[in-house]
């Protein structure tokens, strides 16, 4: 049984359908990347999967249960969402923002457990040194990392609280859009590690190299529909880049000299990823 | 782990800071109340005020002189209690509205309560007499009984009730206008509030245009705000509206904290966002409606108090909301003491005072610390 499943979901708004007949499933222990051009319906699909928007047709299920029947707090126990926007009204401090993630879901946990989760989340976001800073004074990338720490805090608090009826689900909406290379890699590796711990991870990514490196499977959306799905090797083809993304890019071909190019050296196939994880990947420089 | 221990200690200190702030605010409320009860035509030293209150509270009222009893217990205590409730209601409502709108510039009047109450008050002041006379006549002809309210009686007893009802009505209207498919759109609420505010303002203006001199004077005074009408009766009438709001507000704190991240994010964290919006609007309309109904329109308390507290102790609503209630009450009672002394034996409308003091202070806040307040 999939941890997260969408069955034939449609969403129409203002006479236009934004998402059409999308079937999708993410198993516990799997990281699925959703890619696609602007306006393809990626974020709308994520809102449907999060329960934030109701599909006009079709169903979204967590652990086999239709989420339309579940109240918000039950959803929050098993599912955390990293949003695209990272605006916080009012002068909250970094640890207060992360606390928001832990407190709601983990209010029944003992203090020590919550402090543990807090520390782990701040470390995973690499924002431990910022814990007492005002959120407003942070850079865009730092804010995104704080939000990641908050989301991680919620997920961990939920994992310790939940009656384990359903596997935890992590939804990431362009999680690396304002991060530097080091933190892009760190965040996605953290998400990947979570998937290996049994979390169902779904991430929207624009960078196809990162998508190929971290996604066990890719789902490519175009105009609200699934245009392609499968392993990175199956999905990323010259034809797809032409027809869906409308760019003359080539897969696996070195561009003509003297143009230098930089790629993440994390592109081992999923089977080898675990074996590599204890080794520090070298930079492609 | 050493680092974990250090963090625990810090969060304990943070909580301790919250307790310290609350204790300081409670002291401030007590001090402002005692000063206020010692201020007026018959000045009383603080220790005498405290002694009178103590004797009255411990059930030995006979030991108090009749004069002191009248001045402190009969006249000034209800006024002080009313000031604490009204100031607290305005400040808490300001904090709630700022949290709901996710904007530090929101004030309690934003959801139309003040403008609706003002319109209803103007209706009563200007048209109340003919309406009451007409209604009484109609009633007497219907029942055959003698009219209860005779020509000379003013309809002022109706004013607080009408203002309260008017405020609630306009808020309900705004809520209905901005809610589609069970979801209240905050931006629509704001814009509709501006539109309805302009409309009710125009009607209120029209009413003052057709009013006679005495009515105009009543209207003006009402719109400037005053605690002058404070009696025990009024305290007893207002308390059931405002005190439950103070008790209910802490339950919204976590939800408003989550709302600071955004509506979608609050939902992701497990909060029923629409319920938070509805509860917030309802509590604000009741609290502000009751405050405006008894004391007229008093500005700036609701705007400035939450700001000041955010600077002092951060944005966490679990502290911010109760602290706002305390500081708002203390400030209004303090301002009222001032209003009674600066032009003694006359009384300055308190709304003038809060604006005169509040506006420059607010400007200073914005210019000196503005970067910390907004994103």
UniProtKB/TrEMBL annotation, chain A:
ABC transporter domain ranges (all copies): 4-248
Signal peptide: none
Keywords of the record: ATP-binding, Nucleotide-binding, Translocase, Transport
GO molecular function: ATP binding
Pfam families from the UniProt entry: ABC_tran (PF00005)
Gene3D superfamilies: P-loop containing nucleotide triphosphate hydrolases
PROSITE patterns: ABC_TRANSPORTER_1, ABC_TRANSPORTER_2
InterPro entries assigned to the protein according to its UniProt record, in alphabetical order: AAA+_ATPase (IPR003593), ABC_transporter-like_ATP-bd (IPR003439), ABC_transporter-like_CS (IPR017871), P-loop_NTPase (IPR027417)
Biological role stated in the UniProt entry: Part of the ABC transporter complex HmuTUV involved in hemin import. Responsible for energy coupling to the transport system.
PANTHER family, sorted: HEMIN IMPORT ATP-BINDING PROTEIN HMUV (PTHR42794)
Similarity comment text for this entry: Belongs to the ABC transporter superfamily.
Protein name, as recorded: Iron complex transport system ATP-binding protein
Automatic annotation (TrEMBL), chain B:
Compartment(s) where it occurs, according to its Swiss-Prot or TrEMBL record: Cell membrane
Top-level taxon of the source organism: Bacteria
Topology in the lipid bilayer: Multi-pass membrane protein
Pfam families: FecCD
Family: Belongs to the binding-protein-dependent transport system permease family. FecCD subfamily.
Residue spans crossing the bilayer: 21-44, 81-101, 113-137, 157-177, 189-211, 231-253, 281-308, 346-367
Protein name: Iron complex transport system permease protein
The entry's keywords: Cell membrane, Membrane, Transmembrane, Transmembrane helix, Transport
Chief localisation class: membrane
């Amino acid at each position: 049984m999939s941890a997260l499943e969408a069955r034939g979901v449609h969403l129409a708004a203002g006479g236009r359908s934004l998402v059409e007949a999308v079937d999708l499933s993410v198993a516990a222990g799997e990281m699925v990347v959703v890619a696609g051009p602007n306006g393809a319906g990626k974020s709308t699909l994520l809102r449907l999967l999060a329960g934030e928007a109701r599909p006009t047709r079709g169903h979204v299920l967590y652990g086999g249960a239709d989420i339309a029947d579940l109240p918000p707090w039950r959803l929050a126990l098993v599912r955390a969402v990293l949003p695209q926007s990272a605006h916080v009204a009012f002068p909250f401090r970094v640890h207060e923002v992360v606390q928001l993630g832990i407190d709601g879901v983990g209010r029944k946990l003992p203090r020590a457990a919550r402090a543990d989760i807090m520390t782990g989340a701040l470390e995973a976001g690499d924002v431990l040194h910022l814990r007492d800073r005002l959120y407003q004074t942070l850079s865009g990338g730092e804010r995104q990392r704080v939000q990641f720490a908050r989301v991680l805090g919620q997920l961990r608090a939920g994992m310790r609280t939940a009656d384990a009826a359903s596997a935890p689900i992590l939804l990431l909406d362009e999680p690396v859009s304002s991060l530097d290379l080091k933190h892009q890699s760190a965040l996605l590796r953290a998400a990947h590690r979570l998937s290996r711990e049994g979390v169902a991870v779904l991430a929207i990514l624009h960078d196809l190299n990162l998508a190929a490196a971290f996604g066990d499977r890719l789902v490519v959306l175009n105009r609200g529909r699934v245009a392609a799905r499968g392993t990175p090797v199956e999905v990323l083809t010259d034809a797809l880049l032409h027809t869906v993304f409308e760019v003359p890019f080539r897969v696996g071909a070195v561009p003509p000299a003297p143009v230098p190019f930089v790629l993440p050296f994390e592109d081992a196939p999923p089977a080898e990823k675990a074996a590599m994880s204890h080794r520090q990947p070298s930079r492609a420089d | 782990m050493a680092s974990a221990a250090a963090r625990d200690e810090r969060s304990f200190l943070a909580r301790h800071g919250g307790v310290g702030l609350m204790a300081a605010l409670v002291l401030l409320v007590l001090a402002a109340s005692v000063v206020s009860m010692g201020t007026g035509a018959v000045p009383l030293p603080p220790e005498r005020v405290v002694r009178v209150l103590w004797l009255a509270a411990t059930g030995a009222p006979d030991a108090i002189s009749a004069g002191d009893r009248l001045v402190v217990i009969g006249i000034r205590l209800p006024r002080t209690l009313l000031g604490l409730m009204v100031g607290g209601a305005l400040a808490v409502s300001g904090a709630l509205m700022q949290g709901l709108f996710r904007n530090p510039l929101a004030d309690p009047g934003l959801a139309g309560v003040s403008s609706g109450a003002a319109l209803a008050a103007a209706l009563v002041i200007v048209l109340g007499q003919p309406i009451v006379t007409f209604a009484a006549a109609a009633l007497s002809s219907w029942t055959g009984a003698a009219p209860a309210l005779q020509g000379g009686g003013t309809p002022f007893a109706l004013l607080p009730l009408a203002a309260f009802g008017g405020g609630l009505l306009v808020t309900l209207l705004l809520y209905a206008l901005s809610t589609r498919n069970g979801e209240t759109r905050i931006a629509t609420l704001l814009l509709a509030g501006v539109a309805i505010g302009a409309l009710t303002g125009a009607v209120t203006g029209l009413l003052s245009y057709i009013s006679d001199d005495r009515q105009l004077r009543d209207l003006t005074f009402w719109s400037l705000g005053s605690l002058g009408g404070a009696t025990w009766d009024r305290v007893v009438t207002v308390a059931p509206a405002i005190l439950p709001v103070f008790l209910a507000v802490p339950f919204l704190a976590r939800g408003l904290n989550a709302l600071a991240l955004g509506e979608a994010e609050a939902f992701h964290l497990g909060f029923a966002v629409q319920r938070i919006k509805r509860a917030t609007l309802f509590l604000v309309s009741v609290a502000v409606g009751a405050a405006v109904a008894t004391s007229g329109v008093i500005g700036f308390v609701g705007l400035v108090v939450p700001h000041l507290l955010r600077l002092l102790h951060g944005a966490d609503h679990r502290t911010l909301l109760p602290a706002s209630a305390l500081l708002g009450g203390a400030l209004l009672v303090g301002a009222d003491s001032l209003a009674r002394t600066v032009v003694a034996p006359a009384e300055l409308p308190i709304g003038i005072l809060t604006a005169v003091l509040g506006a420059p202070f607010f400007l200073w806040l914005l210019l000196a610390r503005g970067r910390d307040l907004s994103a």
